[in-house]
């Protein structure tokens, strides 16, 4: 089955619920743990939940499953090398696979999402969530976090370089960084394509640091959306802006507190969708009680990594 066919099937298929084996950590203390083949894994799902196998989206064969707890039409799970039962640990190889899937999708509203263990991952068997934002109610077909202002920590999207940016803390309720890449040296285009291998390695190194420190994390991969801001007239002649900027996908990384720190009566999960701006209330009563200040305080107190800890990561 091709990637184009998968997009059609997932949007139009009946989403079939699976049993409630998708649970919180239950006392788990490590971000990186071996997968237990005896526990629930995606090799145990019913055949009716398997949408298909995609072998043209990335270097790995990817099984597409209907999500048992869908947040929107077309919400899917993508499981590379399903039969291997790889643990829910992001590696450079799996990041490369994710970046390739996003790049090959024909839809600019497609997003790949990842929750680590202790970061609201439901199963210790590697999987991405896939969403089409057209069906999530967003006017711009972007997560709200994608429209937040940023400050550059270092680098750029010019030839042979990598870029790291921080989300403006005054505009968002969870600290995070955004990684992108320039083109390979000598590659041309209008704009030139980004160096996906370099970006996967860059993001893999950052996430590897989080794993080594047992810091839970949530990740979102977004396709290139064009330039965020038009160039100022006076900048058109500046050398740095005269150098072509690559059409790079973006990797959003949110280091966070453990889900065990999250209050029991929060009223919503605090996984990657919620961190990115798609919040689904557990019930109507709590939905009616929400306001922006309350939601913001929950994320800042229970989810976002403390400022000193976040700064220590950035300084590395």
Would you kindly provide a written description of the structure presented here, covering whatever features stand out?
This protein has helices spanning 3-12, 92-104, 196-212, 239-242, 272-276, 284-289, 292-302, 307-315, and strands spanning 50-54, 62-66, 76-80, 110-115, 128-132, 150-155, 162-167, 177-181, 217-222, 250-255. With 316 residues, the protein is α+β, with helices and mostly antiparallel strands. The chain has two domains: 3-136, HIT family, subunit A, CATH 3.30.428; 156-315, no CATH class. The chain has a ten-stranded antiparallel sheet with strand order 1-2-3-5-4-9-10-8-7-6. A hairpin with a 6-residue loop joins strand 6 and strand 7 (162-167). The radius of gyration is 19 Å and the shape is globular. Residues 194-313 form the GDPGP1-like C-terminal domain. Its EC number is 2.7.7.78.
Compose a concise summary of this entry:
This protein has 316 residues and is an alpha+beta fold. 24% of the residues lie in helices and 17% in strands.
The helix/strand order is HEEEHEEEEEHEHEHHHH
Structural class: alpha+beta
Distance between the termini: 43 Å
- Poorly predicted ranges: 1-25
The percentage helix is: 10-25%
The value of Rg in angstroms is: 19 Å
Oligomeric form of this entry? single chain
| Total number of distinct structural domains | 2
Largest sheet: 10 strands, antiparallel
Provide the residue-averaged pLDDT. 87
Per DSSP, the total helix count is 8
Task: Please report the total strand number as a whole number.
Answer: 10
| Biggest β-sheet: strands ordered side by side in the sheet | 1-2-3-5-4-9-10-8-7-6
Shape: globular
| Portion in strands | 15-25%
GO molecular function, one term: guanyl-nucleotide exchange factor activity
Main location: cytoplasm
Protein name: GDP-D-glucose phosphorylase 1
Subcellular location: Cytoplasm
